[in-house]
# Entry
Amino acid sequence: MDCKEITNQSKQAVCEILEKARLKKGDIFVIGCSSSEILGDQIGTATNLDSANAVYDGIIPVLRENGIYAAVQCCEHLNRALVVEREVLEKYGFEQVNAIPQPNHAGGALATVAYERFDDPVLVESINQKADAGIDIGGTMIGMHMHSVVVPMRISLRKIGEAPIICARHRPKYVGGQRAIYDEDLM
# Structure
């Protein structure tokens, strides 16, 4: 495992997503990550804090530089709760839950790292489908956190480490039928 390469791949992926998704300051970006899949193992079988820290180092600084809020998904043992900064909880009115992510028991490596490294981390059960874009590293199923209309995005990378990635962004619903004219900037 080359942590520098994982950091570089993560940074490249988030930069491409931000460019294509046209996010604005205050939007939410959800991150699901299997450190096991990054290593080429089956999800949930080889939790690795080094690869999680490498992903964090690639993604979180870019989001912060752009004023985008991160929401880091926990594993299914915490019902895919999310680690966010308290500022996000307060701005959006999310409800805090009581759990501390753990790398090998409940939470997962990236959620553990985020909980340790965020300025004022809290765990929320849901972000009420408010994510505007996101990346799923290794098949962690982030869709439940996205707005109701999600558009898959192709970027130049297909994997981070050995983990396949799926990228997505939100777009407003189309209304009005065949007579409607749509704003190309929102598509």
Remarks:
- The helical segments are 3-21, 35-38, 49-65, 86-92, 109-117.
- The longest strand covers residues 163-170.
